[in-house]
Amino acid sequence: xxxxxxxxxxxxxxxxxxxxxxxxxxxxxxxxxxxxxxxxxxxxxxxxxxxxxxxxxxxxxxxxxxxxxxxxxxxxxxxxxxxxxxxxxxxxxxxxxxxxxxxxxxxxxxxxxxxxxxxxxxxxxxxxxxxxxxxxxxxxxxxxxxxxxxxxxxxxxxxxxxxxxxxxxxxxxxxxxxxxxxxxxxxxxxxxxxxxxxxxxxxxxxxxxxxxxxxxxxxxxxxxxxxxxxxxxxxxxxxxxxxxxxxxxxxxxxxxxxxxxxxxxxxxxxxxxxxxxxxxxxxxxxxx
Length: 288
Ligand SMILES: [Zn+2]
Fold this sequence. Notes:
This protein is α/β, with parallel strands linked by helices and 288 residues long. It has one domain (50-286): Aminopeptidase, CATH 3.40.630. It contains 9 helices and 11 strands. Strands 1-2-4-3-7-11-9-10-8 form a 9-stranded mixed beta sheet, with helices on both faces. The longest helix has 21 residues, at 2-22. The structure holds zinc ion. Zinc ion binds at residues 83, 86, 129, 177.
């Protein structure tokens, strides 16, 4: 009887220990060698050293921070999150670089979608995904209410400095976004009759995924890749797309291979799966 009780107590302790280790959040702990040694092997066999750098980009009276995370060797792709209110994609990307290695740059500017700053006391606001072309900068400034030639120039220089640094060693970019899967923004928005129909030359929509979860790409090769894997995909029409100053438009103009990984807010599992599915692309490109 005593042996049985001891056995029971040991089993309960083991279950509690297991549950504790399952909720171990290795990302938010400093990955020192001590912590790595303590991390149970069944939770994170691939726990790797995370290199972190802070890059700073001045804009008016503000300094916008970009945090660069890197695990293992730097490959040709860079993941980039620019909307500070989209956080599922940040968690997904951190998980993916732990798993596969790679570089991830996260813009931090106060937790909002837009970046606000002042020049000569005047408040301006821009969407950080509308600042990569000269035309786009003017439109986004006017959209938020104040415009001046000075602000136009400052924002354009800021955008160019940002992409020059982010794309410095990269041959392609994976923009990381989250959306609310609304009637005005989902994969259907790019299909025939959708709000952004004109911007896309092809769409592939599967019924096995949510319509807020999709890839938006600038090359035929990427589009085919996702379509063959039965993953929602939109191919940007690089010649006819509206110049809204987005990174997708800039990359289309500059012939920089670009993938936008869109997932609904909170769809962490789905977005991680999407990023996992994408990994063979680097292997394909490396062979060329
Ligand atoms: Zn976004």
